[in-house]
Write a structure and sequence with these properties.
It is a single chain. By secondary structure, this protein is an alpha/beta fold. 44% of the residues lie in helices and 16% in strands. The strands form three sheets. A five-stranded parallel sheet has the order 4-5-3-6-9. It has a two-stranded antiparallel sheet with strand order 1-2. Strands 7-8 form a two-stranded antiparallel ribbon. The radius of gyration is 17 Å and the shape is globular. The chain starts with 15 loop residues before the first strand and ends with a helix. The relative contact order is 0.17. It holds the Pfam family ADK. This is Adenylate kinase active site lid domain-containing protein. Residues 154-189 form the Adenylate kinase active site lid domain. InterPro entries: Adenyl_kin_sub, Adenylat/UMP-CMP_kin, Adenylat_kinase_CS, Adenylate_kinase_lid-dom, ADK_active_lid_dom_sf, P-loop_NTPase. One of its GO terms (molecular function) is ATP binding.
Length: 246
Protein backbone atom coordinates (compact mmCIF):
# COMPACT_ATOMS: atom_id res chain seq x y z
CA UNK A 1 0.00 0.00 0.00
CA UNK A 2 2.75 2.44 0.82
CA UNK A 3 5.35 1.47 -1.72
CA UNK A 4 5.81 5.03 -2.95
CA UNK A 5 7.37 5.92 0.35
CA UNK A 6 10.84 4.57 -0.33
CA UNK A 7 11.17 7.10 -3.14
CA UNK A 8 11.03 9.93 -0.65
CA UNK A 9 14.15 11.95 -0.22
CA UNK A 10 16.03 9.82 2.27
CA UNK A 11 19.39 11.13 1.25
CA UNK A 12 21.16 11.34 4.57
CA UNK A 13 24.09 13.70 4.53
CA UNK A 14 26.59 13.22 7.32
CA UNK A 15 28.96 15.84 6.01
CA UNK A 16 30.44 18.71 8.01
CA UNK A 17 28.19 21.69 7.55
CA UNK A 18 29.10 25.36 7.98
CA UNK A 19 26.76 27.61 9.87
CA UNK A 20 27.29 31.28 10.62
CA UNK A 21 28.64 30.53 14.07
CA UNK A 22 30.70 27.37 13.70
CA UNK A 23 31.37 24.05 12.05
CA UNK A 24 29.74 20.98 13.45
CA UNK A 25 29.13 17.45 12.41
CA UNK A 26 25.50 16.88 11.57
CA UNK A 27 26.05 13.23 12.43
CA UNK A 28 26.78 13.93 16.09
CA UNK A 29 24.14 16.65 16.51
CA UNK A 30 20.61 15.52 17.14
CA UNK A 31 18.16 17.83 15.49
CA UNK A 32 14.79 16.15 15.32
CA UNK A 33 12.34 18.79 14.31
CA UNK A 34 8.83 19.45 13.23
CA UNK A 35 7.82 22.56 11.32
CA UNK A 36 4.27 23.77 11.83
CA UNK A 37 2.53 26.41 9.74
CA UNK A 38 -0.56 27.26 7.74
CA UNK A 39 -0.75 26.46 4.01
CA UNK A 40 1.75 28.72 2.25
CA UNK A 41 3.59 29.72 5.44
CA UNK A 42 6.88 28.50 3.99
CA UNK A 43 7.36 25.08 5.58
CA UNK A 44 8.77 23.56 2.39
CA UNK A 45 10.84 26.65 1.58
CA UNK A 46 12.48 26.76 5.01
CA UNK A 47 12.99 22.98 5.02
CA UNK A 48 15.19 23.24 1.93
CA UNK A 49 17.40 25.84 3.63
CA UNK A 50 17.59 23.79 6.84
CA UNK A 51 18.67 20.75 4.88
CA UNK A 52 21.42 22.82 3.26
CA UNK A 53 22.70 24.37 6.52
CA UNK A 54 22.02 21.72 9.18
CA UNK A 55 21.96 18.47 7.24
CA UNK A 56 18.49 17.56 8.46
CA UNK A 57 16.50 15.27 6.19
CA UNK A 58 13.21 16.96 5.27
CA UNK A 59 10.23 14.61 5.35
CA UNK A 60 7.17 16.28 3.83
CA UNK A 61 4.02 14.27 4.48
CA UNK A 62 2.21 16.37 1.86
CA UNK A 63 4.79 15.39 -0.79
CA UNK A 64 4.60 11.73 0.29
CA UNK A 65 0.82 11.84 -0.12
CA UNK A 66 1.00 13.60 -3.49
CA UNK A 67 3.28 10.82 -4.73
CA UNK A 68 0.94 8.19 -3.30
CA UNK A 69 -1.95 9.91 -5.12
CA UNK A 70 -0.19 9.29 -8.44
CA UNK A 71 -0.49 5.50 -7.99
CA UNK A 72 -3.21 3.94 -10.06
CA UNK A 73 -4.64 1.93 -7.15
CA UNK A 74 -7.71 2.27 -4.92
CA UNK A 75 -5.42 3.65 -2.19
CA UNK A 76 -3.90 6.20 -4.56
CA UNK A 77 -7.33 7.28 -5.72
CA UNK A 78 -8.59 7.64 -2.16
CA UNK A 79 -5.64 9.86 -1.26
CA UNK A 80 -6.02 11.96 -4.43
CA UNK A 81 -9.66 12.58 -3.61
CA UNK A 82 -8.84 13.78 -0.09
CA UNK A 83 -5.99 16.01 -1.23
CA UNK A 84 -8.27 17.77 -3.68
CA UNK A 85 -10.61 18.81 -0.87
CA UNK A 86 -7.92 19.95 1.56
CA UNK A 87 -9.14 17.58 4.29
CA UNK A 88 -6.69 15.65 6.42
CA UNK A 89 -5.85 12.03 5.66
CA UNK A 90 -6.78 9.65 8.48
CA UNK A 91 -4.52 9.40 11.51
CA UNK A 92 -4.13 5.64 10.97
CA UNK A 93 -2.73 6.02 7.47
CA UNK A 94 -0.46 8.83 8.61
CA UNK A 95 0.78 6.73 11.55
CA UNK A 96 1.76 3.94 9.19
CA UNK A 97 3.57 6.36 6.88
CA UNK A 98 5.46 8.15 9.60
CA UNK A 99 6.62 4.98 11.30
CA UNK A 100 8.04 3.78 8.01
CA UNK A 101 9.88 6.96 7.06
CA UNK A 102 11.42 7.55 10.48
CA UNK A 103 13.13 4.19 10.52
CA UNK A 104 16.92 4.54 10.50
CA UNK A 105 16.88 8.33 10.33
CA UNK A 106 18.88 10.45 12.76
CA UNK A 107 18.52 14.12 11.91
CA UNK A 108 15.17 14.85 10.40
CA UNK A 109 12.70 17.61 9.87
CA UNK A 110 9.03 16.76 9.64
CA UNK A 111 7.20 19.17 7.33
CA UNK A 112 3.46 18.73 7.90
CA UNK A 113 3.47 16.07 10.63
CA UNK A 114 2.00 16.05 13.20
CA UNK A 115 -1.11 17.91 12.14
CA UNK A 116 -3.34 17.35 15.17
CA UNK A 117 -2.89 16.37 18.83
CA UNK A 118 -3.58 12.66 18.13
CA UNK A 119 -0.75 12.58 15.60
CA UNK A 120 1.53 14.42 18.06
CA UNK A 121 0.81 11.85 20.75
CA UNK A 122 1.49 9.04 18.31
CA UNK A 123 4.78 10.63 17.27
CA UNK A 124 5.85 11.03 20.90
CA UNK A 125 5.07 7.37 21.52
CA UNK A 126 7.11 6.20 18.53
CA UNK A 127 10.04 8.43 19.50
CA UNK A 128 9.88 7.39 23.16
CA UNK A 129 10.22 3.76 22.13
CA UNK A 130 13.38 4.69 20.25
CA UNK A 131 14.56 7.03 23.04
CA UNK A 132 14.94 9.92 20.61
CA UNK A 133 12.57 12.74 21.66
CA UNK A 134 11.69 15.66 19.41
CA UNK A 135 14.14 18.53 19.98
CA UNK A 136 12.42 21.46 18.25
CA UNK A 137 8.91 22.42 17.13
CA UNK A 138 9.10 25.50 14.89
CA UNK A 139 5.93 27.46 14.23
CA UNK A 140 5.93 29.78 11.21
CA UNK A 141 3.48 32.55 12.04
CA UNK A 142 2.44 34.34 8.84
CA UNK A 143 -0.60 36.65 8.36
CA UNK A 144 -3.50 35.09 6.46
CA UNK A 145 -3.61 37.64 3.61
CA UNK A 146 0.04 36.88 2.81
CA UNK A 147 -0.63 33.14 2.74
CA UNK A 148 -3.18 33.48 -0.01
CA UNK A 149 -0.91 35.63 -2.19
CA UNK A 150 1.91 33.12 -1.86
CA UNK A 151 -0.29 30.19 -2.82
CA UNK A 152 -1.60 32.08 -5.87
CA UNK A 153 1.97 32.73 -7.03
CA UNK A 154 3.31 29.24 -6.26
CA UNK A 155 4.53 26.84 -8.94
CA UNK A 156 5.92 23.39 -8.21
CA UNK A 157 7.97 20.67 -9.81
CA UNK A 158 5.75 17.69 -8.96
CA UNK A 159 8.34 14.90 -8.98
CA UNK A 160 10.82 16.57 -6.63
CA UNK A 161 8.43 18.85 -4.74
CA UNK A 162 10.67 21.86 -5.57
CA UNK A 163 8.77 25.06 -4.93
CA UNK A 164 8.93 28.38 -6.78
CA UNK A 165 7.07 31.64 -6.51
CA UNK A 166 6.54 33.81 -9.56
CA UNK A 167 7.24 36.94 -7.48
CA UNK A 168 9.48 35.93 -4.59
CA UNK A 169 11.63 33.14 -6.07
CA UNK A 170 10.95 32.68 -9.78
CA UNK A 171 12.60 29.91 -11.81
CA UNK A 172 15.39 30.94 -14.20
CA UNK A 173 13.06 30.28 -17.13
CA UNK A 174 9.36 30.99 -16.64
CA UNK A 175 7.36 27.78 -16.14
CA UNK A 176 10.43 25.50 -16.17
CA UNK A 177 12.15 23.66 -13.29
CA UNK A 178 15.75 24.93 -12.84
CA UNK A 179 17.19 21.46 -12.23
CA UNK A 180 15.43 19.11 -14.67
CA UNK A 181 14.11 21.50 -17.34
CA UNK A 182 10.68 19.93 -16.87
CA UNK A 183 7.47 22.01 -16.76
CA UNK A 184 6.23 23.50 -13.49
CA UNK A 185 2.59 23.02 -12.49
CA UNK A 186 0.04 24.31 -10.00
CA UNK A 187 -0.83 21.94 -7.15
CA UNK A 188 -4.33 20.46 -7.40
CA UNK A 189 -5.23 21.95 -4.01
CA UNK A 190 -3.95 25.45 -4.89
CA UNK A 191 -6.37 26.36 -7.64
CA UNK A 192 -9.66 26.59 -5.85
CA UNK A 193 -10.51 29.33 -3.36
CA UNK A 194 -12.92 27.03 -1.47
CA UNK A 195 -10.26 24.37 -1.05
CA UNK A 196 -7.75 26.95 0.18
CA UNK A 197 -10.28 28.20 2.75
CA UNK A 198 -10.88 24.62 3.87
CA UNK A 199 -7.12 24.08 4.33
CA UNK A 200 -6.92 27.24 6.44
CA UNK A 201 -9.94 26.17 8.50
CA UNK A 202 -8.48 22.69 9.02
CA UNK A 203 -5.20 24.25 10.08
CA UNK A 204 -6.88 26.49 12.65
CA UNK A 205 -9.12 23.77 14.07
CA UNK A 206 -6.82 20.76 14.02
CA UNK A 207 -3.24 21.99 13.92
CA UNK A 208 -3.11 25.19 15.97
CA UNK A 209 -3.79 23.27 19.23
CA UNK A 210 -0.34 21.75 18.74
CA UNK A 211 1.23 25.04 19.80
CA UNK A 212 0.04 24.52 23.38
CA UNK A 213 1.08 20.87 23.22
CA UNK A 214 4.69 21.72 22.33
CA UNK A 215 4.80 24.81 24.52
CA UNK A 216 4.12 22.54 27.51
CA UNK A 217 7.05 20.38 26.44
CA UNK A 218 9.27 23.49 26.27
CA UNK A 219 10.31 22.93 22.67
CA UNK A 220 8.09 25.41 20.81
CA UNK A 221 9.77 28.29 18.93
CA UNK A 222 7.53 30.75 17.10
CA UNK A 223 8.98 32.56 14.10
CA UNK A 224 6.88 35.60 13.28
CA UNK A 225 8.01 36.96 10.00
CA UNK A 226 6.38 37.58 6.67
CA UNK A 227 9.64 37.72 4.75
CA UNK A 228 11.78 34.71 4.14
CA UNK A 229 15.24 36.11 4.76
CA UNK A 230 14.26 37.67 8.05
CA UNK A 231 12.41 34.52 9.09
CA UNK A 232 15.32 32.28 8.25
CA UNK A 233 17.75 34.42 10.26
CA UNK A 234 15.45 33.96 13.27
CA UNK A 235 15.24 30.22 12.68
CA UNK A 236 19.03 29.95 12.57
CA UNK A 237 19.36 31.83 15.86
CA UNK A 238 16.98 29.37 17.51
CA UNK A 239 18.69 26.30 16.08
CA UNK A 240 22.18 27.50 16.90
CA UNK A 241 21.10 27.87 20.53
CA UNK A 242 19.57 24.39 20.56
CA UNK A 243 22.66 22.80 19.02
CA UNK A 244 24.88 24.61 21.55
CA UNK A 245 22.79 23.25 24.46
CA UNK A 246 23.28 19.63 23.28
P1 LIG B 1 1.14 20.04 2.57
O1 LIG B 1 1.83 19.68 1.33
O2 LIG B 1 1.88 19.99 3.84
O3 LIG B 1 0.45 21.46 2.34
P2 LIG B 1 0.17 22.70 3.31
O4 LIG B 1 0.27 22.43 4.76
O5 LIG B 1 -1.12 23.25 2.82
O6 LIG B 1 1.37 23.64 3.07
P3 LIG B 1 1.94 24.07 1.68
O7 LIG B 1 2.84 23.00 1.14
O8 LIG B 1 0.83 24.54 0.81
O9 LIG B 1 2.76 25.36 2.10
P4 LIG B 1 4.22 25.50 2.73
O10 LIG B 1 4.05 25.95 4.15
O11 LIG B 1 5.06 24.31 2.50
O12 LIG B 1 4.72 26.74 1.91
P5 LIG B 1 5.82 26.81 0.72
O13 LIG B 1 7.20 26.69 1.29
O14 LIG B 1 5.45 25.92 -0.42
O15 LIG B 1 -0.13 19.11 2.74
C1 LIG B 1 -1.03 18.96 1.67
C2 LIG B 1 -2.22 18.10 2.09
O16 LIG B 1 -1.74 16.79 2.47
C3 LIG B 1 -3.00 18.59 3.31
O17 LIG B 1 -3.98 19.53 2.94
C4 LIG B 1 -3.63 17.27 3.81
O18 LIG B 1 -4.72 16.92 3.02
C5 LIG B 1 -2.53 16.26 3.53
N1 LIG B 1 -1.64 16.04 4.68
C6 LIG B 1 -0.33 16.40 4.79
N2 LIG B 1 0.18 16.05 5.96
C7 LIG B 1 -0.82 15.45 6.64
C8 LIG B 1 -0.93 14.88 7.94
N3 LIG B 1 0.11 14.89 8.81
N4 LIG B 1 -2.12 14.35 8.31
C9 LIG B 1 -3.17 14.33 7.46
N5 LIG B 1 -3.16 14.86 6.23
C10 LIG B 1 -1.98 15.42 5.83
O19 LIG B 1 5.63 28.35 0.30
C11 LIG B 1 4.45 28.74 -0.34
C12 LIG B 1 4.77 29.76 -1.44
O20 LIG B 1 5.28 30.93 -0.81
C13 LIG B 1 5.87 29.30 -2.41
O21 LIG B 1 5.56 29.81 -3.68
C14 LIG B 1 7.15 29.93 -1.85
O22 LIG B 1 8.08 30.20 -2.89
C15 LIG B 1 6.60 31.22 -1.26
N6 LIG B 1 7.30 31.69 -0.08
C16 LIG B 1 7.74 30.93 0.95
N7 LIG B 1 8.29 31.71 1.87
C17 LIG B 1 8.17 33.00 1.42
C18 LIG B 1 8.50 34.26 1.93
N8 LIG B 1 9.03 34.39 3.11
N9 LIG B 1 8.22 35.38 1.23
C19 LIG B 1 7.61 35.27 0.04
N10 LIG B 1 7.25 34.10 -0.52
C20 LIG B 1 7.53 32.97 0.18
MG1 LIG C 1 4.78 22.44 1.55
Amino acid sequence: MLKCIHKIAICNSNKITYTSSRYYSTQSSSLRMTIIGAPGSGKGTQSTKLKRDYGVVPISTGQILREAAEEDTPFGKEIAKKLKTGDLISNDIMAEIIQKVLNNQNNWLLDGYPRNPEQAEHLDKVLKEKDIPLTVALYLDVPENILQERIQDRWVHPKSGRVYNSVFSPPKVKGIDDVTGEPLVKRSDDNDEKVFQNRIKTFKESTLPLLKYYEKQGILYTISSPTSDEGYIKIKKVLDQVVHKE
